């Protein structure tokens, strides 16, 4: 028997869950389909924490983060759970070659009216003695940065979507999409129709958008974070004394979190570039753990205790490392959203609002103009 809805959302990562949450609150008859279980660990939306920040080196993303903030707070009010903690954040450079990255963050915050302080090496050491940096180091401190509890955010959005009437189907893989009015979606467990469709496929995006004649030239990368138990002065790595950080460095940036719910700080490298088949196995890499430990020993030596719980996740990355959010060409009732390139989670509640707006009204006030479909995707052949 075919089930009928106003909107079907495929993919219950952060973006799809957020879209379903907003749609259901808006009174849309919504179906959310997930090929694995809700809040699974195979994609890009799980874990203890994700960075939240206005401090971008691109003012378009800074604006989108600012627009997303009240949607996270609204989700907290709906769910009765604290999901976003603001503790401040540092953008660091310890070599002049990386000053432009930090300067760009300050410039973008200036353009959007964000708060920040510039810190030189002496000021960084005085305020955050945990760091070992060169005398040439500089930083921008953003008091509005913090972290989101990633897995709990997804679970809360799905729960609120269901509370407002959405149907949630987990462990259902999509076998076929038939565009049209209505659009049809066939899974290994059901046959569904809807006026509108949102595809938020993450690393599996190309398996889904081939039905609307698109393929994105994305890279699927396995990334990894690792926890480190402090050797001494563990209290200095608590969230009230150690903000989240992004360290602009060669060959790739590092980022990290204070001690949150585990007895150690969390540190990773951004865009390691280790390619992987999303349908294949993934395991944390000992080589990566060793390199991150070397980094922590060099720059945060008091935290460089035994590494534990190395955790893998996926980046689905476009050639320009920007997102893709737009209507599928030739289908004004199908919206695609994916390829968030390793920096999308913080926008999830806001992007969910944008996706709901697009299928409900054809436009949105959310700042997504810079992530619409671009030449590398337009006209890509179906496979």
Summarize the structure.
This protein is an alpha+beta fold.
- What's the order of the H and E elements? EHEEHEEHEHEEHEEEEHEEEEEHEEEH
Largest sheet: 9 strands, mixed
Helix content: 25-40%
| CATH C-level of the largest domain | Alpha Beta
- Domain tally: 2
Head-to-tail CA distance between termini = 29 Å
Q: Please report which band the strand proportion falls in: under 5%, 5-15%, 15-25%, 25-35%, 35-45% or over 45%.
A: 25-35%
Mean pLDDT: 96
| CATH level 4 superfamily of the largest domain | FAD/NAD(P)-binding domain
Named at the architecture level, the CATH assignment of the largest domain is 3-Layer(bba) Sandwich
Q: What is the CATH topology assignment of the largest domain?
A: FAD/NAD(P)-binding domain
Number of strands: 20
Helical element count? 8
Shape: globular
Radius of gyration of CA atoms, rounded to a whole number: 21 Å
Broad structural category? alpha+beta
Question: Unreliable runs, pLDDT <50, ≥5 residues?
Answer: none
List keywords for this structure.
D-Amino Acid Oxidase, Chain A, domain 2; alpha+beta; single chain; 8-stranded mixed β-sheet; 383 residues; 2 domains; FAD/NAD(P)-binding domain; 8 helices
